[in-house]
Structures are given as structure tokens and as C-alpha cells.
Specification:
Blueprint: H1 8-26, H2 32-35, E1 41-46, E2 49-54, H3 75-85, H4 93-97, H5 110-132, H6 134-151, H7 158-186, H8 192-197, H9 201-215, H10 218-238, H11 244-249, H12 253-267, H13 298-323, H14 332-356, H15 362-385, H16 392-407, H17 409-418, H18 425-446, H19 454-475, H20 495-504, H21 509-518
Antiparallel strand pairs: 1-2
Helix pairs in contact: 1-7, 1-9, 1-10, 1-12, 5-6, 5-7, 5-18, 6-7, 6-10, 7-18, 9-10, 9-14, 13-16, 13-17, 13-18, 13-19, 14-16, 15-16, 15-17, 15-19
Main location: membrane
Membrane topology: Multi-pass membrane protein
Keywords: Membrane, Transmembrane, Transmembrane helix
Length: 519
């Protein structure tokens, strides 16, 4: 008796699980939230006794004759005050190394060096994946990232800590960019949207928050995260094959057949060989497409430019909302869990809806999500002007703005795969990610505006969101259920026919009909 009956969906489930675990390593992109954490109050023993004080805006924990918030208290009240004010939700690298007190290091925080590593990885690994293969590049990324993640928490040197966080960033780039190209080419086309909704970033954020909550300090969190990430590496190395779509595009038809044979074996179905495409006499040879020649084709040029805009806007607004949302709730853990849980629930609902609502395409999701985010950002600004920050309805609209802004990532990734040819899919997605990484760095700089004029942060998100909506409405092409094998080419089939064509590449239609009759 099979736990999961034979069928292609057996492979799809394995890929969904693998991609979720891939996200768990990628979510290290947000681990600087925990690495940079500092409590709002702290206590220190002085010659005059224990002194508790409010941590200054600089977040430097060194005591500098600050007022004692527990002064004039005695007995039980004093003891309770010391307990309350000395409480810290998490022991971070910023607290251990006193990063915010060091003149040079505080200007180049862990997030900065990690984002530099991600940027370098985006530049290199996307091209390598298009040339060397998805699977090999993904494994290489994990072999760089996982040891670096663990080593970043091994040494007591702040320089070593920064170095290995930068190398971890290179691994993150591989799982974020090459991982998506790899898994999206293996999964059935009608399950591709579910690959972005069921296996999602929000679930990984919840997992990371749980790891941080139970470990309580950054070093153990890093080691545990590295161990869990080994699951993904093992599945890809020992079980999953190379992308058959990439192999056929490279003309390596025998290897592509071995990949398809492996998928059929995992699915428990009969393997039906697929012969190489017949050579047509006097046919024009298919031109090799690279990231430079993309701009020579008007349609591909339009596609890549709209993708860059989408990624820049989403990278800026999503990170601005995340970086500025630490105080939307009084309890640090509540805010982190709510952000992850709500986003995960919404994405899962969208995953189910995608299968039942054929009109819910990529454009529809982007336009609706971005428009709703704009509305909720407007509500956040209104509550800030009204002095209602901290109220439950402020938290509610802030979370709504965060969720709908984050959902825009789904059409960003899906369109990056479905608008570009296989030859340059990983490279073009990497170029989109590079644009997104620059937006992330910009967001980290603009987040400082919160301490000066907080409504200005959300006004920036509204203006960028409006730009995204207008551009997507006029220029974004619908790609739902398109065939990745012909994506971005003149031979691309209509979206409604792509699913049928791509499925017959894996299994003979007669076998499908027999399975349907048995059901």
C-alpha cells in the first residue's frame, strides 16, 4: 500500500516540500532582524547598585549615566522593576559584540555585509546556472552557504562573523534565484502557482522564528538552522534529477530522458520516451538568447524592464514595511509570528483559489494586492497623524499593508520564470534579484526616516506602489499556465494550451486517461 498513490502529484508534493525547505535557508535574509535585536530597557550593576535604564535610540548598550527608571522603589516593587526592565526577548549578535557602540562596525551592520554577499551571488550564480545546470549550481550554493552559516556563529571575532555572514549571503542568492528556476522547471505547470503559495516565505519565517524562540540566542539559532538546511541539500543531491527542460534546451536529449525517467520512477508511473525534435529542412535555426540580446527583441525588452520595475518596487516596499514594523506590537515575538502566520494563511488560500479560478492570473494578483496595500498604507498614515499608533486597529492595518505588499512577490517570481526563455531564465531572474537587492539596501537606508518623520516611510511605499500598478496595468503580459519550454519565444503556445503540452512531455496521454477512468 502506497502512502501517496502513483501519479505526477507524488513528485509535485516532494518538490513542494523541498522548495519549502529551500525557503528555510533563504529566510536567513531576514535573520538580521534577530541579529540586530536590542531590548528597549536593560539593567547593569554599578558601584551604586543595579541601575535600569532605557536603551537610547542609538541602541548602544554601554551605560552612560542614564536615569535609573527603577529609582525611588524599594522591596518587592524594586525587585519586580529589575526583573521587568532586565528582560530581553533574545540574545543577539548586536548585544554580544556591542555592534552599535563600535564607531566603524555600527555603520556596516550584519544585514549590509550579508546583502553584499547576496548581490555578488546574484551576479555570478544566475549565469552559472544557465551554463552549468540548475542542480549543480544549487548544490554548490548550499555547500557554500550552510557551512558559512554555522561558521559565522563559531568564532568570537566580529570580523570572522561579518565574513561568514557575507559568504552565507552568496548561498542565499543561490537558493533564492537558482532554487526557484530549478524547482519551477521540475514541478507540473498547473502546480507552479502553488509552488509559490503553499511553499512560501511566510512559512519559512514562522519556522525561523520558532528556532529563534526555542534557542534564545543567535549562535545556537545559526547552528540549528544550518542543520535543518541539510535536509534540502540531501533531497536535491540524492533524489531529484537535473531539470529536463534545461537539458533539452541545451540539446542534451539523452540526459533529459534520464531526468524524465527519474521523475517517472519517483511518480510510480510508466516512462514514455520522448524523441528529440525532428529537424525541419530549410527551417531557420533557433537563435541563442542571452541577457544582452534580450534587449534586441522588443517583446523581451519590454518584459525584462517591467520585471525590473516590479522587483524594485516590491523589494523596496516589502523591506521598508518589515524593517519599520518591529514596534507595531509591544511583544517582539507576537509581531514576528503574526506577520508570518497571516501571510502564510493568505498565500495558502490563494493557492487553493488559483486552481478553481482560472481568471485569477498574475496580473490580477499583482494589481489587486498592490492596490489594497496602497489603501492600507493610507490608513497607517492616517492613524499616525491621529496619534493612534499602538492601538489594535493600527496593528491590524499595518499587518494588512505588510501582507498585501508581500503577496506581490508571487507574480514577481512567477513572471520572472514565465516571461523569459529557458536559455536566460536563471540569468534574467538573477538580474531581477540584483535590482531587488539594490532596493533592499535602499530600504535599509530609508528606514532611518522612521525616527525623523514616520509617515514619510509609508508615503514612499504608496508612491512606488502606484507606479507599479500603472506600469503593470498597461505593460504586464498574462502568463498563467504558460509552457516554460517555449516561454518568451515566438513559438509560445496560448496559456490555456500550455498545461496540456507540457504534461504530455512527461506521461503519455492515454495513461492519463486510464488513471482518470480508474478514479
Amino acid at each position: 500500500m502506497h502512502i501517496i498513490p502513483p501519479g505526477l502529484y507524488r513528485v509535485d508534493i516532494l518538490i513542494l516540500i523541498s522548495y519549502q525547505m529551500c525557503h528555510f535557508f533563504s529566510i536567513q535574509q531576514l535573520f538580521p532582524i534577530f541579529l540586530n535585536y536590542t531590548p528597549k530597557t536593560t539593567c547593569i550593576d554599578t558601584p551604586k547598585g543595579k541601575v535600569c535604564y532605557d536603551v537610547p535610540k542609538s541602541k548602544c548598550l554601554q551605560y552612560d549615566d542614564f536615569p535609573n527608571v527603577c529609582a525611588n522603589l524599594t522591596g518587592t516593587a524594586l525587585s519586580d522593576c529589575h526583573t521587568e526592565k532586565s528582560h530581553s526577548y533574545y540574545t543577539s549578535a548586536a548585544m554580544e559584540f556591542k555592534i552599535y557602540c563600535l564607531p566603524v562596525w555600527k555603520d556596516f551592520r550584519p544585514a549590509f555585509v550579508q546583502y553584499v554577499g547576496v548581490l555578488i551571488g546574484n551576479i555570478i550564480l544566475g549565469y552559472v546556472a544557465d551554463q552549468m545546470g540548475r542542480k549543480k549550481t544549487f548544490i554548490l550554493s548550499m555547500l557554500i552557504g550552510i557551512p558559512s552559516l554555522s561558521l559565522s556563529a563559531t568564532f568570537n571575532s566580529i570580523a570572522a562573523f561579518y565574513l561568514f555572514r557575507a559568504l552565507t549571503g552568496i548561498g542565499i542568492a543561490g537558493t533564492m534565484i537558482v532554487g526557484w528556476a530549478y524547482f519551477s522547471e521540475l514541478v507540473s505547470p498547473h502546480q507552479r502557482f502553488k509552488l509559490r503559495t503553499f511553499s512560501n516565505w511566510a512559512n519559512a519565517r514562522i519556522m525561523l522564528t520558532l528556532v529563534a524562540l526555542f534557542t534564545g540566542e543567535w549562535r545556537l539559532s545559526s547552528h540549528v538552522s544550518a542543520c535543518i538546511s541539510m535536509i534540502t541539500l540531501a533531497i536535491v543531491y540524492f533524489i531529484l534529477p537535473e531539470s529536463h527542460i534545461w537539458l533539452r534546451k541545451k540539446g542534451r536529449y539523452e540526459e533529459a530522458e534520464e531526468s524524465r525517467k527519474r521523475i517517472a520512477a519517483l511518480a510510480g508511473i510508466e516512462f514514455v520516451p520522448m524523441p528529440p525534435p525532428e529537424k525541419v529542412e530549410n527551417a531557420e535555426p533557433e537563435k541563442t538568447v542571452n541577457i544582452c540580446t534580450v534587449f534586441a527583441d522588443p517583446q523581451l525588452r519590454k518584459n525584462i524592464l517591467i520585471l525590473w520595475l516590479m522587483w524594485f518596487v516590491t523589494g523596496m516596499t516589502a523591506y521598508l514595511t518589515d524593517l519599520c514594523g518591529g514596534d507595531m506590537t509591544k511583544n517582539f515575538w507576537v509581531g514576528q509570528f503574526l506577520s508570518g502566520i497571516l501571510l502564510s494563511v493568505v498565500r495558502i488560500i490563494m493557492g487553493f483559489a488559483d486552481g478553481y479560478l482560472p481568471w485569477m492570473g498574475r496580473r490580477f494578483v499583482l494589481l489587486c494586492s498592490q492596490s489594497l496595500a496602497i489603501v492600507f498604507f493610507g490608513c497607517v498614515i492616517a492613524f499616525l497623524f491621529a496619534g493612534e499608533k499602538g492601538q489594535w486597529y493600527y496593528t491590524a492595518v499595518y499587518l494588512a499593508a505588510f501582507v498585501f505588499t508581500s503577496i506581490v512577490w508571487e507574480p514577481c517570481y512567477l513572471c520572472a520564470s514565465e516571461l523569459m526563455p529557458t536559455d536566460v531564465r536563471a540569468t534574467s531572474t538573477a538580474s531581477c534579484s540584483i535590482v531587488g537587492r539594490f532596493a533592499n539596501i535602499g530600504a535599509s537606508m530609508l528606514s532611518g526616516l522612521k525616527t525623523v518623520y514616520e509617515p514619510g516611510v509609508h508615503m514612499i511605499s504608496i508612491s512606488l506602489g502606484l507606479t507599479n500598478v500603472i506600469a503593470a496595468y498597461f505593460f504586464l503580459q498574462e502568463t498563467k499556465n504558460c509552457s516554460l519550454d517555449k516561454a518568451g519565444t515566438t513559438a509560445a503556445k496560448p496559456a490555456e494550451k500550455a498545461n496540456e503540452q507540457e504534461m504530455t512531455d512527461l506521461i503519455d496521454r492515454s495513461i492519463q486517461n486510464e488513471d482518470l477512468e480508474k478514479k
